[in-house]
């Protein structure tokens, strides 16, 4: 996926995402900032952590250190002073996972300990942040005893436990360990092994609290942490994304003396928050001594899973916390503070406006309407100040230095995240200190987009965020209601939305009633009305954008997608408004609320959000189940008409996979169009790299030579991960053979595909035949029956609006050429004609009558054929779809599409070895015209290349081997046609052909097949150049006469003389074999030295007995530079070698020109136009001579380039000069021969007309510097057909049809 949609998505999605940033040093003049980013690595299908340091000296001077991969550093946190860095590290050597705790002071590792056997995995989720304890017990049933885990994103995590890491620090130069005990000169500190001790809070015996989110107080005596409590019925409600589940803030106090050898110590624990409050996110100020300040967040227990937040503050000298910011029920207007909405506070939110060490305020981000703003809260008065109110950007505060310096990340719908450094005082100032680098083309594309927040009339607080191309016009629209339901979409960077918007879609992100940022009143308004109010808000938002002229309506114009509760809404919309949406994508959707209760990690959500009571004694009654089902999308299942694509995370604990699966079965059972992708290892958010990439792949597989390269094998391999396999051109003259193992006994079965896409071997893949294909219906059904007889299910959709089809240039004689001929002459039959039988019959009879007129009467049962096609139409109807709408809906809904090319580039009707070609466009352009898709939708183009060259049928074949080596290639490679059974002609690999193919199709990578056929050859040759008359041609010639006479220049490689059949990687290939492949890559333009070609060596081997596929990256193919005006175009470097008619043309031009010149000037000199017999000046003879002259010029077509010169003039200049002679002669005769004017008026009329037009034409020729485009000009000289103007437009000769 590279230069178009999927490549753009990759570039955008691989941009770094800031995960943490903090100050290692900060003062008014210099800041040293540590930055960690997460980077998606699509090649390795993983996410990597990249770290770097940024030093700011002034607003104009920012220094960035080199980046380093710290993926195995799972978390890092600085000390209060910034001088030390604590790191949790995990390594994996392929078999063993190990965990370490490290303390760094600058670049020195001060302390480290292996904790692999001390405890289980580190808990790094924001709601846990504590390792899992390793327990040993004498209880034989301990490993079977049920312990509730923490649910989504923390599967299997049952006992997070706090650990204390202790080490003895040595004094460093200039460092004071303690104010009361400075180090003495020369004193050495004895080294002690670091210790790791579990902390056991002193709680009542029946307590079910487990702890996480711990933070040290600056006195080093106390720890503040969040305790998570089970409900009284033994549940542990999942804390991820839910602010209403039982939790509390605790103050833990360490004992004065901690034994060195202790594995566990008891710490006193004091609960700071009441039971009716769910508290989280404790933060402690970094003041090194008392008093310090503690803040945290809270929400009510129960009710909406998120809501307006309360902010609490506690001074270390106070006994009771103070409510600083309360929840807001209803703001006065949109400018009034709507309440605080933030999941976690920044890691250090404290600032001091007087730049002292005593914090005066905290700073955080918060949702405000559809924006995310930056707010500052006074720790004493609770006064709220808006620091950043940006209508275009979304801001997130990450950290502060405890004084006036603040770190934040900002992004917009069209601008990727940037790291900002702010300085707070009486006013705030911000500077960008780090931003990602975009390619120029990507930046230009982003600049074509615009984003806008639109309020929906009469539906407050409903708002939408739109993203579209800047030019305002109605667009097809993708509506995306958010999940939750109590979250908010904000205008932040979204790679997938950007890619879809650049494709011409209007992105509509809907914030409906229940979204955060508008006051608690509107959160509560959705409780008990989910599935009704949120659905109506979403539909009204869609209608408003249509009525406002932003969006189109109708088939193929409206789409919807959503995840979780957004998927719930998408399913509702297609059920409640059947037929309105053309496609729907749902990611882990809630489908049947009544069935989610017993399997979700948050069963309370289903009760409370839908207005049902929930408590420890709640059981699912019939009444409750019925109410929940009526509010669910499953209630509307029978009304669904829209094709659906489901993305399901296999490990989802929030909305179990059974929800999506059961919806799939329900739709499938009702005959609906539905597909489902299941992603192993993914949870509710589907945030692993493979799942994120799904939906941005449109891959094209094309033959790079003369066909039979093995495209079907590659398609079969790739189809395992493809939703839609598509044919775009050709007919049943193509042939792909697939051999697979069928059934439990793995019976080897051969499938021959001619017309039907070969991806159908994958039972989950749908085949689509595009409109560029011609179809012979009897052959279509014969192929279906043959495939189904071997166990392949071909029922369903797949035939697009296609042409119906029936000289020896080596064709397959399947009627493909006549079908395309009928299509070009606009007399062919299309599939949709079949379903209007009367109209079809009229057209069919008309076609037959036309054949009778052309070929004479022949035996043909016209009425019988009409009846036959009527029967075929009934069989065909289930397979027919509106192809363009179907394909674009699939693309918009995220389906992965594979285009299976037919034939190959050298058989292309325009760029192949014409006329020894097929009748369709087999190049990359045929994909677009054959399917109705724009070029930018194509993600990756793969050229399939046989390790040698073959072709079937007639036509020049420069590297053909008519010897024992050619026979060897035929026999070992089994070179017999799938469609015709004909023996294929074989020859050496032709890199001139391959490079020409690359120039036209722009392959992103090549797949080399049948490499093992060369195993036994002692020497292997490769064609690298064509030589004609001692001159090397610079490219592949269009003139087949030239091609048939070229001499081929080869490079000879030594063979490897060993079998590579069982080779599994490129490194295992013999050295000579690798050199062979490397030379091929280099010749067509694969350069490993390019920094962007890091994957140039990536090889995917797929092997059977006679074929081997090697996928290698191919990029940076050189482009052709066209000449400037006035230069000679020379693409072949060949001498002038015209067609056979050129000699006759020169003779005719010479005779006609000579006669015209002699007759004209003799008549003038002797003052008698009737003298000299044959050379007498008679108008009829003049016209005949001019006609012969014109015919001669038309014969002199520029089949080769104007390389030969005579007296400094090239060929075309000679023709132009020659064409001027009769014009000059006739015109001069009329002008000079004045005395005959009054005597011969008819003569004056005849020759005067010739003279005036002739002189004008001469000057026009001189002005253009080329031949005329006017055929009539041939009468006066210089009319060389339309293509003679090629030089004026500076086009290469190949661009012209001759």
What does this structure look like?
- With 1298 residues, this protein is an alpha+beta fold.
- It contains 26 helices and 55 strands.
- The strands form 13 sheets. It has an 8-stranded mixed sheet, sandwiched between helices. An 8-stranded mixed sheet has the order 40-37-43-36-44-48-53-52, with helices on both faces.
- The two termini are 36 Å apart.
Spans of at least 5 consecutive residues with low confidence: 177-181, 183-188, 797-813, 1086-1142, 1196-1216, 1230-1248, 1257-1298
Please indicate the percent range of residues in DSSP E strands (runs of 2 or more). Answer: 25-35%
Tell me how many strands there are: 55
Mean pLDDT across every amino acid position: 77
Q: What is the number of helical segments per DSSP (H or I, 4+ residues)?
A: 26
Q: Determine the structural class based on helices, strands and strand pairing.
A: alpha+beta
Kindly, what is the distance between the CA atoms of the first and last residues, rounded to a whole number of angstroms? 36 Å
Q: Specify the biggest β-sheet.
A: 8 strands, mixed
Radius of gyration: 39 Å
Shape: globular
Overall helicity = 10-25%
Q: Could you give the order of strands across the largest sheet?
A: 28-29-31-30-32-33-34-35
